[in-house]
Amino acid sequence: MIKKGMRRQIVLHYILVVFVALLLVETIFLLAIRTYYYDSIYSKITTHISAGETFVKYEFSAERSPNQLLNLLDFFNLEYTELEVLTLNGDIITSSTGFQPDRTITTSDVPEAVGGSVGRWVGRQAGTNESVMAVSKMVQINSHETYILRYLTSMEGVNNDLLNLTLLSIGIGAAVMMIVVLFSIGLANSIVRPLNNITAVSAQMAKGKFTTRIKGDYRYEIGELASTLNYMAEEIVRSNQIKDDFISSISHELRTPLTSIKGWSETLISGGYDPEETKLGMGIISKESDRLIGLVEEILDFSKLQQNEMKLSIAQVDIKVLLQETLLNIWAKAEKKRIHLLLECEDTIFIRGDANRLKQVFLNLVDNAVKFSPEDSSIVLSAERLTNTEMAVIVRDSGIGISEAHLSRVRDRFFQVDALNGGTGLGLAISQQIVELHNGKLEMDSELGKGTQVTVILPLDDVQEEKA
Q: What class of enzyme is it (predicted)?
C-alpha cells in the first residue's frame, strides 16, 4: 500500500482516469458488438422474408389448397430457426418443428407485424427460459389468406460468444490496468523523488547551510525550481558576504573618526597647548563628527527606504538652480584635485519632486565622479529635455571607469568597487531608490579606463509644461 502523499495522489488519479476511459471504451465496444450480432441475425431473417415475398405470388394459387400451409413452411423455412405460422390474433396454426401447441403468442413482435412493419422481440422463451429472438412479418398469400410468419432463433450461442468476449475484454483491461499502475508508480517516483531531494536540501538551507546545492539534471518545472533555489542560496551567500564586508568597512569607517576624536579630546583635556593647536584639534573633532553624522544619516536613509518610511516633500523644482547648488557644495573637494566642473543646462526645466532628496542624489553622483577621476580632469553635469514628458540629468567623467563585471552590481546595497576609498556602499543604492520614488530611472554606462556616465531620467512638471 502506498503511503499518503503526492506519490499516492498521482497514482490514484492516474489509475482513476485510465480506469474510467477503459470502462467507457469496453462498454461501448461490447454494446457495439452485441448490436452488430443481433442486427446481423435480424437482417438475415428480414432479407429472407423479403426474398420470399417477391416470389410468393408465383408459387401459390389464388385458391387455397390442403397443403398450402406445408408449402408455406417449406418455402419460407430458414436454417437454424423455427418458423411459426400465426393468425392475425397471434394463435399458432402450424410450426416447422411439427408441433402445434394450442397457445397464443403475446410478445411485442406480433402486434408490430399486424401493424404492417417487421416485428422484433428479444427475451426468454416461456417454458425453456432460453434466450431467443423473434422476428414476425405479415404475409398475404392470396387475396383472402393472410398469415403472420414468426421466426424464432436461439441467442444462447451468440450470448456465450459475447460473454467470452466480455471476459476477454475484462482480462485485457486488467492487464492494461496493471501496466498503468506500474507506469504511474514510476511516473510518481520521477516527480516525487526530485521533490524529496529538493525538500531535504531546502531544510539544510533553512538551517543556515547555504553552501549546499540541489544536484541533479531535472527538467521542466522541477528543474526550474531547483535552479531557483540554488540561485537563491548563491544570492544569500553573496548578500552575507556583502554584509560581512559592509560590517568590516563600516567598522573601519567609524573607528577612524572616533579614534581621531578620542585622541584630540584626551589631548585637549590634558591642557598646556597654545590657541592654534587647540583650534586645530577642535577643527579635526568637528570635521570627524560631521563625517560620523554623514555615515549614520546614510545608514538611516537606507533603513527608511527599505521600510518604505521615507517621506518626500513634493514641490516644483528648478533643475538648473538645484544643479548649481550641487556644484557649489562639491566645488571645494574638486578644487583639491584640480578637477574642473562644468554645468550645461537650459533655463526652463522644471520637475515636481523633493529638492533636498534630489540634491542628495546629484551630490552622491558628482562626489563619486570626483572621487574616481584623476587630477586635472573635468566633470560635466548637464540637463536636457528628452521628450515632452521626460528630462535627463547626466553626470559624465573621464575617470577610472567601472568594469563590466562590477557595473551590474554597483547599485547593489553595501557593494563597493574599491573598498579602499571608504564609504558604506549604500550611496548608489539609496540614490536609485530615491529616483524610483520620483517615478524616474537611473542608468549607468561605463568603460574601464575611459570614464563613466550616469543618467537620471525624471518626469517633467506637467503644469509648467502646459504654461510653456
A: transferase
What is the Cα–Cα distance from 269 to 285, expressed in whole angstroms? 13
Distance CA 95, CA 327 (A): 125
Distance CA 262, CA 188 (A): 69
Q: Please give the model's pTM, rounded to 2 decimal places.
A: 0.49
Residue (of 127, 125, 151) closest to 137 by Cα position: 151
Fold observed for domain 6-160: Beta-Lactamase (3.30.450)
Domain residue spans in the chain? 6-160, 220-306, 315-467
Residues counted in the chain: 468
Asked whether the domain spanning 315-467 has the same topology as the one spanning 6-160, the reply is: no
CATH 3.30.565.10 corresponds to the domain 315-467: yes
Q: Which stretches within 92-219 are classed as H helix?
A: 109-114, 156-206
CA distance 255 to 267: 18
The domain defined by 220-306 carries CATH number 3.20.20.70: no
**pLDDT digits over 108-117, tens only?**
999 999 998 9
